User: Which sequence fits this backbone?
């Protein structure tokens, strides 16, 4: 189970990385973002949300699998309870940050026509993605630890 959940975490980290390459353009700018920066960010999110449909649903599916797997993992006594519980909290946090914070901001960003509002939304998206990346990194670290613990228990005893 932890090995499969490392895969879902890796997928989410890769998706975040792709978005962060555009999100980081907001750094170093105060107030309204320059038009080329806004254009690049808005175009990226337009492609991700609208032009790539229905592929955007894959990320949602992976998040659901991550939460479902973390719930199932609660029944694995070979993994310490604190790891199982923290993994579930992190999986839920990743999902909530995305569904409650990032996705609505992205939808508004793509449809907004005010550069001031788009700049505010781009910064909000960056913040959400950085929080999500922190959660995904911690989640992956714990899942790798869990996989190693299970691997050590299943190794044959030395002869």
Assistant:
């Amino acid at each position: 189970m932890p090995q499969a959940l490392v895969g879902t975490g890796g997928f989410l980290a890769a998706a975040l990385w792709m978005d962060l390459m555009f999100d980081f353009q907001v750094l170093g700018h105060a107030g309204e973002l320059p038009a080329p920066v806004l254009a690049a960010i808005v175009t990226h999110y337009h492609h991700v949300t609208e032009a790539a449909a229905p592929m955007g649903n894959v990320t949602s599916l992976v998040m659901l699998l991550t939460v479902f797997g973390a719930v199932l993992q609660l029944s694995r006594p070979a993994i310490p309870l604190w790891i199982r519980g923290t993994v579930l909290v992190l999986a839920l946090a990743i999902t909530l940050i995305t569904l409650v914070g990032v996705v609505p901001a992205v939808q508004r960003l793509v449809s907004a026509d005010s550069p001031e509002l788009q700049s505010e939304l781009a910064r909000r998206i960056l913040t959400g993605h950085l929080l999500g990346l922190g959660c995904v990194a911690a989640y992956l670290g714990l899942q790798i630890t869990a996989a190693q613990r299970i691997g050590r228990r299943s190794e044959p005893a030395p002869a």
Remarks:
- The two ends are 28 Å apart (CA to CA).
- The chain has a mean pLDDT of 91.
- Helices lie at 2-23, 35-51, 56-73, 81-111, 115-154.
